[in-house]
């Protein structure tokens, strides 16, 4: 089988590499010449554990190559971004998905399978993608098989989850779903569940929405407990001893290109009905201001205070800064006139024009607060002696509850449990 993947980002690249590793001939398409060149040298442009080795191997074996131009193949996988539109309810911007479909159609032949893996608004396959394929003269389900197979892998564990997670394969017809399932059987060891396209679209969106709503509940609880002088972390620990309760962890906000984006796709389709989903988004969006305001309070009374912000990515042990609440918090503090120096061992260049990245030594020197914004492994064991020696005021505000207090040291650790 030959596969042509459109989009070589966080999903398209690992998916292409794994198909190639399992014997499929894969050509991956990207619009960036630099990405194509780098991949063809066997190097990668994103951070993901284990990915570098697999790409190197499949480029060397000739099973994978990258190109700017779409080529004929047996199957096509579209894995391009679906950002929010700039409208009131942040609806799903289908531009890249529809453009990719239009690019593929001129090389499509009878019997081919077209798969959209990008996360899309409910009914996108039926209402937007299918008509494009029909306009090109194909009968969907007879000439060409059209499928939505949403990606569900967790950044940081993509290679493992690609193989072991269950897959939902939503076909426009049941034959489409069967043809799609056949392709994923190449390497998927989890269950492959066949359904229709709109059920697959909504299931994917609800997975991320479920998590977003639960994190919003934890963040709301943190605010309520803080106002009532109750330790929220103890509350969560106690409540989670109940066999049917699983409170999530409060944090500095919800980032990444999934949870902070996808729930809006549902809200935009039914704004009058999707009320909890919208409110949860609002709660999570409010967290950066909450954290920035509390960080400012913690340095109140200090003349020209300096904050050392640790971490800019949307979560730990990744290099992805998309929708990162950490970036928003740092930008907010800088806009409010606070002196902030920023350190992140996983990132080379800041995406914000408001700050650059510095070494941890430089950030800590003369600082009055370490603001831990990301749960990178490197931040779990901060050197308390270094902190006491170099900081002006040895204090930490740990928004991720990862720093263990050292009672022998002079460093004060504040987290959501004792913020009140
Ligand atoms: N977060 C919290 N508290 C928590 C858990 C997470 O504040 O208790 C924050 C994280 O720090 C981060 C954000 O939420 O900012 C999202 O992180 P995540 O680890 O929950 O998820 P993502 O965005 O990395 O990946 C999600 C996954 N979806 C689910 O777990 C339901 C993944 O399986 C999907 O494939 C991915 O979205 C996607 O691409 O849609």
TrEMBL record:
Pfam families given in the database record: UDPG_MGDP_dh, UDPG_MGDP_dh_C, UDPG_MGDP_dh_N
Signal peptide segment: none
Keywords: NAD, Oxidoreductase
InterPro entries: 6-PGluconate_DH-like_C_sf, NAD(P)-bd_dom_sf, UDP-Glc/GDP-Man, UDP-Glc/GDP-Man_DH_C, UDP-Glc/GDP-Man_DH_C_sf, UDP-Glc/GDP-Man_DH_dimer, UDP-Glc/GDP-Man_DH_N, UDP_ManNAc/GlcNAc_DH
Domain UDP-glucose/GDP-mannose dehydrogenase C-terminal: 308-405
Gene3D superfamilies: NAD(P)-binding Rossmann-like Domain
SMART domains cross-referenced by the UniProt entry: UDPG_MGDP_dh_C
Family: Belongs to the UDP-glucose/GDP-mannose dehydrogenase family.
Name listed for the protein in its UniProt record: Nucleotide sugar dehydrogenase
Source organism: Exiguobacterium mexicanum
């Amino acid at each position: 089988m030959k596969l042509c993947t459109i989009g070589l980002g966080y999903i398209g690249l690992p998916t292409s590499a794994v198909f190639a590793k399992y014997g499929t001939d894969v050509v991956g398409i990207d619009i960036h010449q630099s990405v194509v060149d780098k991949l063809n040298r066997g190097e990668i442009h994103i951070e993901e554990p284990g990915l570098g080795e697999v790409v190197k191997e499949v480029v060397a074996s000739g099973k994978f190559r990258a190109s700017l131009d779409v080529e004929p193949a047996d199957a096509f996988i579209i894995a391009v971004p679906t950002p929010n539109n700039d409208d009131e309810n942040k609806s799903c911007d289908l531009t890249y998905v529809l453009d990719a479909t239009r690019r593929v159609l001129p090389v499509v032949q009878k019997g081919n399978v077209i798969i959209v893996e990008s996360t899309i608004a409910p009914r996108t396959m039926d209402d937007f993608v299918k008509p494009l394929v029909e306009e090109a003269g194909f009968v969907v389900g007879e000439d060409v098989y059209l499928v939505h197979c949403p990606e569900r892998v967790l950044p940081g564990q993509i290679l493992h989850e690609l193989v072991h997670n269950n897959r939902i394969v939503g076909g426009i017809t049941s034959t489409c779903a069967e043809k799609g399932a056949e392709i994923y059987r190449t390497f998927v060891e989890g269950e492959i569940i066949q359904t229709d396209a709109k059920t697959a679209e909504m299931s994917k969106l609800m997975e991320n929405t479920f998590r977003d709503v639960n994190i919003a509940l934890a963040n709301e609880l943190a605010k309520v407990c803080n106002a009532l002088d109750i330790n929220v972390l103890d509350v969560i620990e106690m409540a989670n001893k109940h066999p049917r309760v699983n409170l999530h962890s409060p944090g500095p906000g919800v980032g990444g290109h999934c949870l902070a984006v996808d729930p809006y796709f549902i809200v935009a389709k039914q704004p009058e009905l999707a009320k909890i989903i919208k409110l949860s988004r609002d709660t999570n969006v409010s967290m950066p201001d909450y954290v920035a305001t509390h960080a400012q309070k913690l340095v109140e009374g200090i003349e020209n205070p300096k904050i050392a912000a640790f971490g800019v990515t949307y979560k730990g042990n990744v290099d992805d800064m998309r929708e990162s609440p950490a970036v928003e918090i740092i930008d907010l503090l800088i806009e409010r006139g606070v002196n902030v120096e920023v350190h992140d061992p996983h990132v080379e260049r800041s995406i914000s024009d408001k700050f650059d990245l510095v070494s941890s030594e430089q950030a800590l020197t003369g600082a009055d607060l370490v603001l831990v914004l990301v749960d990178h492994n490197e931040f779990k064991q901060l050197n308390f002696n270094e902190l006491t020696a170099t900081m002006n005021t040895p204090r930490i505000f740990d928004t991720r509850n990862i720093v263990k207090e050292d009672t022998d040291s002079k460093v004060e650790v504040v987290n959501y449990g004792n913020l009140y």
